[in-house]
Amino acid sequence: MADDLSKPFPKSSMSEEEIMKINKERRIQVTSFAFMIFLTILAFVAVATEMIEVGFAIPFILLLAVIQFFLQMYYFMHLKDKDHGWPNAFIISGVVLSTPALIALILLLGVTKY
Amino acid sequence: MSSSVDFSKGLPSHPEKATLEGKNKFLGFWVFLGGETIMFATFFGTFLGLREGTAGGPTAEELFSLPLVFIMTMLLLTSSLTSVLAMFSMKKNNHKSMLVLMIVTVLLGAAFLGFEIYEFVEYVHHGLGYTTSAFASSFYTLVGLHGAHVLFGLCWITTLIIRYSRSGITLTNAPKFYVASLYWHFIDVIWVFIFTVVYLLGIGGA
Fold first, then answer.
1. Side-chain half-sphere of B120: how many Cα atoms within 13 Å?
2. Fewer CB within 10 Å, N side or C side of chain B?
3. pLDDT tens for the 206 residues of chain B, in order
4. CATH homologous superfamily for B25-49+60-204?
């Protein structure tokens, strides 16, 4: 059995239709990559050029980071796909549990004089 | 678990989840990533709380250089794309193309790590030791922890590449490559927040 599992396959089982689908998905991935590069450049430009007011630039780049987070998670890591119910549950729990920890740390450490 | 694999049909379209072991690895790895999220969040929180505490030492604005961080970001983002493309090759049973893309991923990751080491050495020369200030400690700990993750990922993927350089894509190694690629994306996600929260906010003077 173990030997069987370590043997390569002579070909892929994918039908023409499945290959078309996977190629389309790959195009979407490359597009989302280009979009992420664009967002990154935007974030750097927002800080580097100082044309944008600091008060606006900060929430702006944080928003860009959050968008990139979702693109990475849902496209690159396939969270949007079927059969990803539990992975979604785990990551959402992680984010939900992180939020109070993050806020508490910022407030406690930031407010306390050290 | 069935005791035989049907080779006549060819590689399943989702080879990483074709066996029970593969499914378990996949699920278990997402539990791990959920935990990693919380761990990194606590380090981010600590850094954000302490980053004003420079204790007379160098400040973020004095130290950080945008071009360097930009190059590092591009390297890591691109390596994330190559590992995504490697997984498409894997699903198509194209072993050689998967290996090449994984090697490119490792090279880009290694370049990133090289820049990070250079950056840290530079900062130490500028007088930012680990114990200089609260800002220094929390910065080195957060960014260093990410760097350690990159190093671990490099070793992991290199081992996989060497171990399975001639085996073809099998139901045993497909989940391993898939999980390693998930890990690599996660490192990239963390970096997105590091370059935003640590570097851009630091330089922006927020």
1. 16
2. N
3. 455 677 888 888 889 888 999 999 999 999 999 999 999 999 999 999 998 888 888 988 889 999 999 999 999 999 999 999 999 999 999 999 999 999 999 999 999 999 999 999 999 999 999 999 999 999 999 999 999 999 999 999 999 999 999 988 999 999 999 999 999 999 999 999 999 999 998 887 65
4. Cytochrome c oxidase, subunit III, four-helix bundle (1.20.120.80)
**Are the CB atoms for B156 and B183 separated by under 8 Å?**
yes
Residues of B within 8 A of A70 (CB-CB) are none
Interchain CB distance below 8 Å, B80 and A62: no
Q: Give the residue among B100, B85, B93, B106 at the shortest CA–CA distance from B168.
A: B93
Check CB contact under 8 Å for A4 and B134. Answer: no
Interchain contact, A76 vs B206, CB within 8 Å: no
**Other residues' Cβ atoms within 10 Å of the Cβ of residue A43:** 25
Q: Where in chain A are the domains?
A: 17-81, 82-114
Helix (H, G, I), strand (E, B), or coil: what is residue A56?
Answer: helix
Predicted ipTM of the assembly: 0.89
